[in-house]
Amino acid sequence: MNKYLTDEQVVFFHENGFLHIKAVFTEQECLETIESAHKCANGHYTNYLDMHFRSPVVHKVLTGKKTCDIADDIFGGTRGIPCGTGFFFCKPNNPIEHGSVWHQDNFAAKAKFGAYLNLGMALDDADASNGSLKIIPKSHLLGDLPCKPKPNFEYNSEGLLVQVAPIGNNCEVPEGLPIVQLEYKRGDIICVHPQLVHKADKNQHPSRWRRKIYLDYILDGEPFWPGWAAKRRLLERHDSANYKSKVN
After folding, report:
1. DSSP assignments along 175-225, one per residue
2. Strand order in the sheet with 18-21
3. pLDDT, tens digit (0-9, with 9 covering 90-100), for 19-31
4. Per residue in 36-49, pLDDT tens?
5. Are 209 and 45 in contact (CB under 8 A)?
6. pTM here?
7. How far apart are CA 39 and CA 54, in angstroms?
8. Per-residue three-class SS string for 83-141
9. What single string gives the DSSP state of each residue in 15-54?
């Protein structure tokens, strides 16, 4: 039995490779998350692949009931285990944020088809003007596509990780499928299939931020690639006997 999503929502996700869930988190929850992330960033507004290790609030969102229930429903009732995050600080014309190229998330995770999941938590309203997500629905059904990967991150002279190129593996863009630009509000969740082809342009808006967290889950018992920068690893969930809502 689904704990958060309806059967229709789960079917839509598996048929189309994405699902937009509105108002999952409250305004207050989002503002608390933003405040914690900004404190951890301390003015260094790049993309953080380990914010759940820095921020107890982000850790709680990743391992909490709402997001784990959504992952469980998409995985057909099997537990989704939290394993990583990607926090995007897309402030207007940020010199160390370059958007992304067309890509599939599974290139990084290298998991079995459908065994990996990204939940995108919107912390700001987003549309085309500040670089909201572009997707190609049903492209996930084509599996892992040919690609031309390149480095996305490197360490600067101060030892800080910075984005040096648009994120993604430059995957082959399928022909004959429409491109859809999503629009979403603060507190919404966008569920992204690991093989869905998608991208987000650099935020060129003169004043609007676009902050977003990608919350990573792996189907219980399935292997995945940790990644040298992402450092994905299995984490205790809110309903685990050893769970502690704090930075590990």
Report:
1. TT---EE--B-TT-EEEE-TT-EEEE-----SS--EEEEEEEEEETT----
2. 18-21, 189-192, 116-122, 210-219, 80-90, 47-48
3. 999 999 999 999 9
4. 999 999 999 999 99
5. no
6. 0.95
7. 10
8. EEEEEEEECCCCCCCCCECCECCHHHHCCCCCCEEEEEEECCCECHHHCCEEEECCHHH
9. HHSEEEE---S-HHHHHHHHHHHHHHHTT--SEES-HHHH
